[in-house]
């Protein structure tokens, strides 16, 4: 298991938040098999996503890059997606899914800036998004997450 998951779990444990469906002791000493528990997996994924959104000012291309290559790789490449084929493939897949699931209601990600390598011309500059409290927004959203069958919630409604 990547160390990122353990660091995130430890931060969540140290936050002192009482998570309704997660035993905080498991976060303190996260094991690889704990990630098969959907409540733990989703909690850590939401935490990392919110952290990366905050760190990279809502730039979804950098969030996906940090998810795949690590935030250090993004920072080391001047806050640009690192030049790894796997990272660029994941960026394309995520963008494709986001476009596919677009409901037509102009979600915030539609206005997000994406950098992609242009053939032979290097990186294209994109405008930065205004600074927002993405961590707070993600925490609020995570409290309303309900699995599709509607029986389990990760937080208060």
Tell me the layout of helices and strands.
Elements: H1 3-14, H2 24-28, H3 38-55, H4 60-69, H5 71-76, H6 85-100, E1 117-118, E2 122-123, H7 134-143
Task: Indicate the overall shape.
Answer: globular
- How many DSSP E strands? 2
Unreliable spans are 115-131, 144-157
Q: What structural category characterises the helix and strand content?
A: mainly alpha
Q: What is the strand content?
A: under 5%
Q: In short, what is this structure?
A:
The chain has 157 residues and is mainly alpha-helical. It has helices at residues 3-14, 24-28, 38-55, 60-69, 71-76, 85-100, 134-143; strands at residues 117-118, 122-123. Residues 115-131 and 144-157 have low confidence and may be disordered.
Describe this structure in words.
- 20% of the residues are buried.
- Helix 3 runs antiparallel to helix 7 (134-143) and helix 4 packs across helix 6 (85-100).
- A hairpin with a 3-residue loop joins strand 1 (117-118) and strand 2 (122-123).
- The two termini are 32 Å apart.
- The protein has helices spanning 3-14, 24-28, 38-55, 60-69, 71-76, 85-100, 134-143; strands at 117-118, 122-123.
- The chain is mostly helical.
- Helices cover 49% and strands 3% of the residues.
- The longest helix is centred in the N-terminal third of the chain and has 18 residues, at 38-55.
Characteristics:
157 residues, mainly alpha, 7 helices, globular, disordered C terminus
């Amino acid at each position: 298991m990547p160390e990122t998951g353990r660091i995130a779990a430890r931060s969540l444990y140290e936050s002192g938040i009482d998570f309704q469906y997660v035993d905080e002791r498991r976060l303190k000493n996260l094991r690889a098999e704990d990630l098969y528990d959907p409540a733990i997996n989703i909690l850590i994924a939401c935490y990392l996503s919110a952290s990366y959104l905050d760190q990279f000012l809502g730039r979804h291309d950098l969030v996906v890059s940090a998810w795949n290559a690590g935030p250090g790789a993004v920072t080391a490449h001047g806050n640009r997606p690192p030049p790894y084929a796997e990272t660029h493939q994941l960026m394309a897949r995520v963008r494709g899914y986001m476009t596919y699931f677009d409901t037509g209601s102009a979600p915030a990600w539609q206005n997000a800036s994406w950098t992609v390598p242009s053939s032979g011309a290097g990186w294209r500059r994109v405008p930065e998004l205004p600074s927002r409290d993405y961590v707070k927004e993600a925490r609020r959203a995570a409290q309303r997450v309900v699995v599709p069958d509607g029986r389990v919630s990760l937080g208060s409604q």
